[in-house]
Automatic annotation (TrEMBL):
<feature type="transmembrane region" description="Helical">
    <location>
        <begin position="269"/>
        <end position="289"/>
    </location>
</feature>
<protein>
    <submittedName>
        <fullName>Olfactory receptor 13G1-like</fullName>
    </submittedName>
</protein>
<dbReference type="InterPro" id="IPR050516">
    <property type="entry name" value="Olfactory_GPCR"/>
</dbReference>
<keyword id="KW-1133">Transmembrane helix</keyword>
<keyword id="KW-0675">Receptor</keyword>
<feature type="transmembrane region" description="Helical">
    <location>
        <begin position="20"/>
        <end position="48"/>
    </location>
</feature>
<keyword id="KW-0552">Olfaction</keyword>
<keyword id="KW-0716">Sensory transduction</keyword>
<keyword id="KW-1003">Cell membrane</keyword>
<keyword id="KW-0812">Transmembrane</keyword>
<dbReference type="Pfam" id="PF13853">
    <property type="entry name" value="7tm_4"/>
</dbReference>
<feature type="transmembrane region" description="Helical">
    <location>
        <begin position="235"/>
        <end position="257"/>
    </location>
</feature>
<keyword id="KW-0472">Membrane</keyword>
<keyword id="KW-0297">G-protein coupled receptor</keyword>
<dbReference type="InterPro" id="IPR017452">
    <property type="entry name" value="GPCR_Rhodpsn_7TM"/>
</dbReference>
<keyword id="KW-0807">Transducer</keyword>
<dbReference type="GO" id="GO:0005886">
    <property type="term" value="C:plasma membrane"/>
</dbReference>
Length: 308
């Protein structure tokens, strides 16, 4: 076949309108800094304060690391495309971005389920919490998260690598994601679509279902709390968690459960931004900054920095 194989891709970004590039650059630059420094503050606070070395906060630390990897694998290149004419990315760079993004995607979904299970045990079985959620259990759960995330990433990246890209090489998106890459392939993508569908059902739908079941038991336990103030506080925490989780899972399920031929990239860019940019920014606020123990830990970090 007389075909030229692609060595680099052209990323179109969020918009082709020059008048919007500057505004979008400022917006997403701010989002990235909030997400990065917010999650980094959580990591430092948990590591620095020994009182936070418990399963709940170790899982929060893992979520913060995943969010940093997710946003850092996407936004810097996205900002470069907006600010300069450097809208090309090498084939290897594209595959690297895809690998770390799919890794963080899988890790975050399983982490949400793990964190929901941790809260389920803490609220429904408080007397047995220390025995169930001990250091060994925490290590096992994090190992499961890592294995699933790495497997998910390796499978999808490997399946993309077996495809042939012989032109065009324009990615109508703001990063190298599976759907736009499949639409550029000049070889059949049926196996890729099947594996994306399987991953979406098992990881996204499966984890979301387990998370909702955990919170269902948690809400049932909250209803047995006698004081109105206790119910209000518990419901506030659970509702905010469920909103963030739903904001993450819904667009993921929507994006990956369809065949490549039905994608509308203009619409999907906005949907993708919800779970790649918005949720990592909200996680520190919802899961950590509203927590009194975490607030105390953060204050200790700032107090230590002032002394230096």
């Amino acid at each position: 076949m007389n075909s030229t194989f692609v060595t680099e891709f052209l990323i179109l970004g969020l918009t082709q309108k020059p008048e919007l590039q500057g505004v979008l650059f400022i917006v997403f630059f701010c989002i990235y800094n909030i997400a990065f420094f917010g999650n980094m503050l959580i990591i430092i606070a948990i590591i620095y304060n020994t009182t936070l070395h418990t399963p709940m906060y170790i899982l929060l630390l893992a979520l913060a690391v995943v969010d940093i990897i997710c946003t850092t694998s996407i936004i810097p290149k996205m900002l470069e495309v907006m600010l300069t004419s450097g809208n090309t990315i090498s084939f290897g760079g594209c595959m690297t971005q895809l690998y770390f993004f799919t890794w963080s995607l899988g890790a975050e979904m399983v982490l949400f389920t793990t964190m929901a299970y941790d809260r389920y045990v803490a609220i429904c079985f408080p007397l047995h919490y220390s025995a169930v959620m001990n250091r060994h259990t925490c290590v096992v759960l994090l190992s499961i998260v890592m294995v699933i995330a790495v497997t998910n990433s390796c499978v999808h990246t490997g399946l993309i690598l077996r495809l042939s890209f012989c032109g065009p090489n324009t990615i109508d998106h703001f990063f190298c994601e599976i759907p736009p890459l499949l639409s550029l392939s000049c070889t059949p993508v049926r196996v890729n679509e099947v594996m994306v569908y399987v991953a979406d059902i098992t990881l996204a739908v499966g984890d979301f279902t387990l998370t909702c079941i955990s919170y269902g038991f948690i809400i049932a336990a909250i209803l047995r709390i006698r004081t109105a103030e206790g119910k209000k506080k518990a419901f506030s925490t659970c509702s905010s968690h469920l909103i963030v989780v739903s904001l993450y899972y819904s667009p993921v399920i929507y994006t990956y459960i369809r065949p490549a031929s039905s994608y509308s990239f203009e619409r999907d860019k906005i949907v993708t931004a919800l779970y790649t940019l918005v949720t990592p920014t909200l996680n520190p606020i919802v899961y950590s900054f509203r927590n009194k123990e975490m607030q105390t830990g953060i204050r200790k970090v700032f107090a230590f920095l002032k002394q230096q």
